[in-house]
Amino acid sequence: MKYWKRSISAIAGAALVFAGVMPVSAQTSLEKAATVEGADLLYGSNNLTLEGESGYALADMAGTPLTEAVYGSFSYNGGYIVATGAEGGLTSTGVLTAEGKELVPCRYSEIEVLNPHWILAITLDEATADQYDYSSFLSNDAFYLINTVDVYFISQDKEASCVASLTRDQYLDSSAYGEYINIQDRATNGITAYDSAFQPVATDLSYIYDEPVDGDGLVTFSSNGQYGLQDAQGNTVMEPSFQYIYDFYRDYAVVSTGEKEGLIDREGNVVLPAEFDEVELNYYLPEDPESESTSGYGAFGYFSVIQDGKAGFADETGAITCEPKYVADAVENCGISLLMTDAQGNVSIIAADGAETLIEGYDDVSALYYGSGLLYEVRNTDYQEGLIDWHGNVLLPCEYGDISLSADGNYAVTDNYDGYIDVYKLAFDQDGANAETEAPAETEAPAETEGVGTETAAGTGSTDTISAVNVLLDNAEAALNEDPEGGRESAAGLLASAASLLEGENADAAALLNNAVSLLNMENTDADSILVLIANAREQIA
Length: 542
Known about the structure:
Layout: E1 2-4, E2 7-9, E3 17-20, E4 24-37, E5 39-41, E6 48-51, E7 56-59, E8 71-77, E9 80-85, E10 93-96, E11 102-108, E12 110-115, E13 118-127, E14 134-135, E15 143-154, E16 160-167, E17 173-177, E18 180-184, E19 191-194, E20 200-202, E21 211-213, E22 217-223, E23 226-231, E24 236-242, E25 244-249, E26 252-256, E27 261-265, E28 270-276, E29 278-279, E30 298-299, E31 302-307, E32 310-315, E33 320-327, E34 331-333, E35 337-341, E36 347-351, E37 356-359, E38 364-367, E39 375-379, E40 385-389, E41 394-400, E42 402-405, E43 411-415, E44 420-430, E45 435-438, H1 462-482, H2 488-502, H3 507-520, H4 527-541
Antiparallel strand pairs: 1-21, 2-22, 3-45, 4-44, 5-6, 6-7, 8-9, 9-10, 10-11, 12-13, 13-15, 14-15, 15-16, 17-18, 18-19, 19-20, 22-23, 23-24, 25-26, 26-27, 27-28, 29-31, 30-31, 31-32, 32-33, 34-35, 35-36, 36-37, 38-39, 39-40, 40-41, 42-43, 43-44
């Protein structure tokens, strides 16, 4: 196995066929799936929680219990459910699948989900402020030292096995990429990569975040100041055509000539030609369990682009579907739509298909997290919430105390705080969804553009990431300051998105934000403690 400083996780191979997702049409509908007593949506997941006599149970979106009601709390983390037994204490936390299957027994103090394949289960001993690894955000005088770190590998069919048990001296830090895990030894500071059986495959790594390049990975290579893509065997997947190739978000990566940006897919096909000033990232997509992120470049076959400071949309063919004519600084990119507020305070939704709808009669309009810009929450002057689509069509009137989406974006949950919730299944009328479309046998790469840079590593997008994170943190702080209770859910979504962006670049800041999300999902935590965590995270990325 080789380890490369700059690798791009992608599917190798020549591009012959791709799964083309055609743009969604205007029709969106709701169908009530269930009314459930004593339930809540576990935010960030596709599960409900049910209150029982002695604890809580995990349930599916129809309200069907998946576990016994023996848990004190649940939180969602990287595609899994971190569960704490009703008895609480330092030895009561474990991990469940979304189907309620126990992966890691509830006998640990702390859980760290590194990726879908690797989970660390940690036992802690009480310590003092003079030397500690963990401290409690709920108490100023609770400190803990690591006792053991059990390393669990999760197979593709969701079978878990504890492949190693490490002492505190054997563990300082970790990162995971696919089925490989990097462990830094506290005693030696050495970093070793292990496979799924916890056999060492590379030693003396330079950085904890060094990524493995195996048969499914792509790396950048340069020729004459231009960058292309190769697989792990050195086969050219995409000829050197760009000055920069940025990291993939889901299925796409931004490429740049140094002056203009475009998009490529994971097979090296050019999806959008490098003809735009910027291809915009959005933060409202359904969660991707692999990356624990709601960020991405495309939704339902549309991409937000900026030209001459104006925002618009293009589709997967590169055709402009909404002319870039809206001042980019005056709109929010929500996925397949833009939310625009003009100087007079009028709010409009600009749909990716070119439709512009003035939204009237509401006190507040905001995109729903996990809704891809297809769904908007509206609020009247009585703080009652409703739901509209990207063309302003009313899906639910303003009759609810709260409306949230499941993490996959397929269910809307309404709550009037009367002991019941209603669950609605969302249906999107999409032409040709998931249809396989034959592409040309060879995609012609754009002509090489004479660049101004030298042969350095392809851009990582770190500056863009920090800028995007700061915007999310600003919005989270604003939500909590404006409405410390009502803004908790919105703040949790914003902070979760910020944490996912920072996972590979600043693990400490990401951990602070994930802790903030966990606190927001707990009762009786005040907004001030969350704001302190946000401030600490800002210091980490400054």
